[in-house]
Automatic annotation (TrEMBL):
It comes from the Bacteria. This is Putative enoyl-CoA hydratase/isomerase. One of its GO terms (molecular function) is delta(3)-delta(2)-enoyl-CoA isomerase activity. Keywords: Isomerase, Peroxisome. InterPro entries: ClpP/crotonase-like_dom_sf, ECH/Chromodomain_protein, Enoyl-CoA_hydra/iso. It is found in: Peroxisome. It comes from Plesiocystis pacifica SIR-1.
């Protein structure tokens, strides 16, 4: 099968010593997340939630890339169907991220785009390599933020910096992500996965109930608002996906040209 065909094998899931490791593994397409990949990730989250021996989740990319976010081909298909409802695997993953009681550790290298950034807002300890390049290009794609990021980003870094990242949608460095409070530490690329794995295993040895309760206490104060924001975002996101601005932006990406939004109001 071609490497770029969307199959569940593009995500590796491993359970080891209390840690569920989810690895994005579709390097030829910069680990862009397809519907099939979301299904595998959702199943991993569900299994990690149910299994008492799993105490921590670890999310990482592969081959020097975290993820280019949602697969734009799938976005174009969703633009035709407008499916951003409860049954959508993307939506199911977002719900798992918000509701996950167990700590989530993330290791980021290279591109982290769209959901590749916003999922980090639901992780607990995040390590990035010097090569990490973050971007939330939702507006550039005729869309709006998702994963409750329109609520969480201003909360984490203050409105002006959140507005800069969301409205301009430009790339930013690991150092900037650190200064904005999105990640915990910037490390040399060679040691990022090692560090995140070490931290995940250290967490897995801690008293599990104390870990879960502590995470819950830190997050519960704003969980309801995050969930409400996510619902509102999904409504707008679905409108954006079926609209002409997103169609122009995504066609332009695949045609490797600048988009032209001059005719839109
Ligand atoms: N969906 C589908 N395909 C994608 C993709 C995505 N989100 N991101 C990258 N790809 C594909 C490219 O089309 C290209 O395919 P090709 O080799 O068949 O032409 C391949 O992955 C490599 O991407 P390329 O752009 O050449 O790599 P790069 O190193 O120059 O840039 C990114 C990497 C991630 C910065 C850039 O690909 C990008 O901006 N991607 C779009 C990200 C995006 O908008 N995601 C949606 C967020 S909501």
């Amino acid at each position: 099968m071609a490497d770029d065909a969307p199959t569940p094998e593009h995500v590796h899931v491993e359970f080891d010593a209390g840690v569920c490791t989810i690895t994005f593994a579709r390097p030829r397409k910069k680990n862009a997340l397809t519907v099939a990949m979301y299904r595998t990730i959702v199943a991993a989250f569900a299994e990690a939630r149910e299994r008492k021996d799993v105490r921590v989740l670890l999310i990482q990319g592969s081959e020097g890339c975290f993820t280019a976010g949602n697969d734009l081909v799938d976005f174009m298909k969703a633009g035709q169907t407008g499916n951003m409802g409860e049954t959508s695997p993307v939506v199911q993953l977002l719900k798992h991220l918000v509701a996950c009681e167990k700590p989530i550790v993330a290791a980021v290298q290279g591109p982290a785009v769209g959901l590749g950034v916003t999922m980090l807002l639901h992780c607990d300890l995040i390590y990035a390599g010097e090569s990490a390049r973050f971007q939330m290009p939702f507006v550039n794609l005729g869309l709006c933020p998702e994963a409750a990021s329109s609520f969480l980003l201003p909360r984490v870094m203050g409105y002006p910096r959140a507005a800069e990242l969301i409205l301009l949608g430009e790339r930013f460095s690991a150092e900037h992500a650190l200064s904005c409070g999105i990640i915990n530490q910037v490390l040399a690329d060679e040691v990022v996965i090692e560090k995140a794995t070490e931290v995940a295993h250290a967490l897995a040895k801690k008293p599990p109930r104390a870990l879960r309760v502590s995470k819950q206490l830190m997050r519960d104060g704003y969980r309801k608002q995050a969930e409400e924001t996510m619902e509102a975002e999904l409504v707008e996101f679905a409108k954006g996906l079926t609209g002409p601005e997103a169609a122009e932006a995504m066609q332009a990406f695949f045609q490797k040209r600048e988009p032209d939004f001059s005719k839109f109001e």
